[in-house]
Amino acid sequence: MKSGMVRLLTAALLFCVALIAEAQTDRQFVREGNRLFNNKQYDKAEVLYRKAVSKNPSNPQAVYNLGCALMMQNKDSAAIVQYQKATKLENNKFRKAQVFHNIGVICQNHRMYDDAIKAYEQSLRNNPKDDETRYNLALCKKMRKNNKNKDKNENKKNEDNNRQNNKNKNNDKDKGENKQQQPKEQMSKENAEQLINAAIQNEKATQQRLKKAMQKSGSRRSSDKNW
What we know:
This protein is mainly alpha-helical and 227 residues long.
């Protein structure tokens, strides 16, 4: 009898807990999520913020805080999605400025300077007195300029390297042609010397033959005369 009573009371207690959880409002989930967030329990805070959003998708604070919990867990893509929703839901300029500021921080961390600059500019439109946003904006503009100059210098360096490589290739080609031509020139010179030597030898041989012929011709003339 007692055991049955215990079961009945336990079941009744669980039912009451379920009713209490069901009765919780989106604001209560947000408050509980904030407590966990401040204790750096970001994953548990995320769960409660999601419950708050599920209760009331139009609650800008719940959506924004969910983005913050995701951002603290390095879930940047998911955080950006929630922040973008918050910018459309939030009417308070100061809170909207903070949303755009956080979007800028994520983009800056990923070196997406163009997107970061746009987000920071939107933040300053809603809160022109935010010095931290203004500093981040100036820093992103400087980094973007440095990157452009770096890219420009790298492109110029690559062009110079390409020109130098082409020049070296042409020089190597010329050297190769000269190397190929040199044996031809040497061969031509050797051939010329051989031809000259052959001509000299032929000339000597010709002169000797003429000399012998003249000697024979002279002897014939004298014999004919004698005869």
